[in-house]
Amino acid sequence: MIKGIIFDLDGVLVSTDELHFKAWKKLADELGILSFTKEDNKKQKGVSRMESLEVVLSKGNKEYTTVEKEELAERKNNYYVEMLKELNNQAVLPGVIETLIKLKKLGILIGIGSVSKNTPLILEKTELTGYIDQISCGLDITKSKPDPEVFLVAANKLNLKNENCLVVEDSAAGIVAAKAANMKSLGVGPEYKLLRADYSFADLESDIDWNFILQN
Ligand code: BG6
Ligand code: MG
User: How far is the CA of 44 from the centre of ligand 1 (A)?
Assistant: First the structure.
């Protein structure tokens, strides 16, 4: 029986993925890595900032020291945070608010499980903070998805057993992490058919039988 739902943030509740891509692309261009594409960007979904940087650097042929890599990741984040200044509730994906209201009425606790360190800022700018009971994000963890840590921390903060939580994700790494956390998963987003989730839907606007999912 499901008592809490842990939502990934980027690509599940809000449409920030394009901004992540634009910021990485700007950095890649500055580094002369012109072959970085949207296809490469798919590998950055659900993984940490430093691991996402490695995806960009793997497309070039220059070696960087740890200090240089930290500077590059910070530079990308500065571009991203600058773009987030324009973010508002228009970035909330279709069906999200209705789903959160419906789940709350059903007595379900709502958690966030995102490796993004910008999670609190994004929730605030998109006016979603009030719908969320507990946040587990990049600021709480040391290992990114597919490690289950971010979901385990979320379940712990919600005071729920892992098996009573369902994860909603748009990334392959996130679905693997949910399984590793012994949680059921629901996949959404452009790649939903490829995700090996227990349930799959194009988005949260789809006709989802929550009563069935919550009882199983
Ligand atoms: C995830 C995104 O939610 O957060 C990744 O899917 C991103 O693409 C990661 O790299 C880390 O985000 P941030 O905001 O901490 O750089
Ligand atoms: Mg995501």
Answer: 8
From the candidate CATH numbers 2.40.110.10, 3.40.50.1000, 2.60.40.10, 3.40.50.1580, the one assigned to the domain spanning 4-15+89-215: 3.40.50.1000
Name residue 83's amino acid: M
The answer, yes or no, to whether any atom of ligand 1 lies below 6 A from the CB of 149, is no
pTM: 0.96
Q: What is the pLDDT of residues 149-204, one digit of tens each?
A: 999 999 999 999 999 999 999 999 999 999 999 999 999 999 999 999 999 999 99
Q: Which CATH number fits domain 17-84: 1.10.150.240, 3.20.20.70, 3.40.120.10, 3.40.50.720?
A: 1.10.150.240
| pLDDT beneath 70, residues of the chain | none
| DSSP label of 145 | T
Residue type, 212: F
- Judged on CB neighbours under 10 Å (0-12, 13-18, 19+), 211 is exposed
Q: Decide: 46 and 172 in contact? Cβ < 8 Å.
A: yes
Which of 13, 50, 115, 175 maximizes ligand 1 atoms within 8 Å of its Cβ, making it the mutation to test the pocket?
115
* Terminal alpha carbon distance of the chain: 6
